[in-house]
Amino acid sequence: MKDYARKILDEIDLGTGGFADIRFQHSESLNMIVKNAITEEVTSNRMGGAAVRVLVGGAWGLATTADISKDTLTQTLKTAVKMAKVASEKVKEPRKINPEFSTQGKSKISFDLNPKDIFIEEKMKITQDFEKTIREVDKRIATSRAIYLETINSEDIISTNGTDVSTESGVFRLSGGAVAREGNLQQNVGENVASSIGIKTIMDFNVDEIGKEVGTKAVDLLSADKPKSGKMNLVMDPSLVGVFVHEAFGHACEADGIITKRSILHDKLNTKVGVEEISIVDDPTIPGLRGSFAYDSEGTKAVPRKLVEKGILKEFFHTLETATILGQTPNGSGRAMDFRFPPLARMGNTFVEGSDKSLEELFEIIGDGMYLEKSYGGYVNPAMGQFMFSSQNGYIIEKGKQKSITQNVSMSGMIMEVLTNTIGVGKLEQAAFNGSCGKSGQWMPVTGSGPALAVKDLVVGGR
User: Fold this and answer.
1) DSSP classification of residue 139
2) Do 265 and 253 form a contact (C-beta atoms < 8 A)?
3) Residue that is last in its domain, among 187, 221, 255
4) How far apart are CA 80 and CA 61, in angstroms?
5) Distance (Å, rounded) from C-alpha 433 to C-alpha 247?
6) What is residue 462's predicted lDDT score, i.e. its pLDDT?
7) What is the tens place of the pLDDT at every residue in 385-399?
8) Residue 23 sits in a domain of what CATH number?
9) Bridge-partner residues for 254, per DSSP?
10) By CB neighbour count within 10 A (0-12 exposed, 13-18 middle, 19+ buried), where does 128 fall?
11) Number of domains the chain is built from
């Protein structure tokens, strides 16, 4: 496969500054959804094909095919070239790729437990049991759900620059949630476990214990205190910090948005963006985390990315193209959902580094305010620097002490305010946000994490 693809690339004339790569991709996945005692979905899917990407005259052409035979691949390459030539006639800002950017390497998953070694009946049972345990806690559980997902993906990438990479990655997750309802009031609670190296953590997951905790918490929140509203001091737990650092800050560090000035950080490189206690890293090389991988979809080797060091913005997420345009080095951020899509600048495992404060010390620092736990979604606008996130519950903090629990609560503010208004950084880092990140119609597995953070003057929106 690679041999004839390489020959096709060698024979094509792309002109001065031309570039081309071919990415073969294949995936096998299993998805199961159980909701309110009904198994809504059990699907197994195999998908594969090739993406042919060319740069001609400063413009891109992309063509894809599920047929990877030599003749079809040749025709697909010609189609991509035609598309690029048409686009180049009206290109205002020519694109380019540094010809020195190339990588050679191989990577396979070292499974802790290969999902192929476990019968589907066992996977179904753990999913059904998780949903059942949540549902049976109380009649006020209006919606109970459990979702099992496994995907094994392989990519083979070659380019006219000399890149030759074969890589394998995995996505495995079990999640469950409850919506408790009483009258017009409802409360949302969820929990999940995820990995990139197999399903051992899923099979070891105590669905009876955790399911009961999820259902019980959802019901208990119906009678919990209503959260405060207004501007106040907050402590964000690792889950909320993970969502913030991914959604609000991480997206703003994607270099395609930097180039087009769709990010609040476009002119902030090597300047202060937070207090000295804040350092932010994205590291897709950490074994086992949901957002881990060895090579990106352009064949670049994954490396840790030091986004912020002691409050100073140091790095962006780069593809081959954005690195060339900004005179930087590619850092393995060009990720594509599958062969039908182009690689985009994306995150992996993004986290705030821990410092030296215990949770109790953070409560003392904020004095009066709230402690927010367990994110369950939100909104962010990287260009405007705005965000809004929801948490599953909060706790009232009075005179530095944790008091009563509150219902679902939201927080909002400006991205830069969180980093500059941080007044305490916890010491216990947790990989607390196992997410699926959407961008331009592509969804990628990611992890967000960090310690708890104490932040002054954020807006809490109440229930």
Assistant:
1) T
2) yes
3) 221
4) 5
5) 11
6) 59
7) 888 889 999 999 999
8) 3.30.2290.10
9) 317
10) middle
11) 2
The answer to whether the CB of 301 falls within 8 A of the CB of 332 is: yes
Contact 356/394 with Cβ under 8 angstroms? no
As a whole number of angstroms, the distance between CA 459 and CA 389 comes to 11
List the structure tokens of 276. Answer: 């000295």
Interatomic CA distance for residues 215 and 150, integer angstroms: 25
Q: How many CA atoms lie within 13 A of 417 on its CB side?
A: 18
> Does residue 233 register a pLDDT over 60?
yes
Distance from C-alpha of 29 to C-alpha of 46, rounded to nearest angstrom: 7
Q: What rounded mean pLDDT belongs to the chain?
A: 95
Q: 181 and 258: one domain?
A: no
Element (H, E) at 438: strand 430-439
Neighbours of 125 (CB within 10 A): 12
- Positive or negative: CA dihedral 410, 415, 420, 426: positive
Which of 204, 221, 238 corresponds to the end of one domain? 221
Lookup: tokens for 433: 């946000």
* Domain boundaries, position 404: 229-461
192 and 153 in one domain? Answer: yes
Closest CA to 55 of 7, 23, 14: 14
Question: For the segment 313-331, what is each residue's pLDDT rounded down to a tens digit?
Answer: 999 999 999 999 999 999 9
The answer to whether 318 touches 255, Cβ cutoff 8 Å, is yes
**463 pLDDT band (50/70/90 cuts)?**
low
Residue 407 has a pLDDT of: 95
The predicted model scores a pTM of 0.95
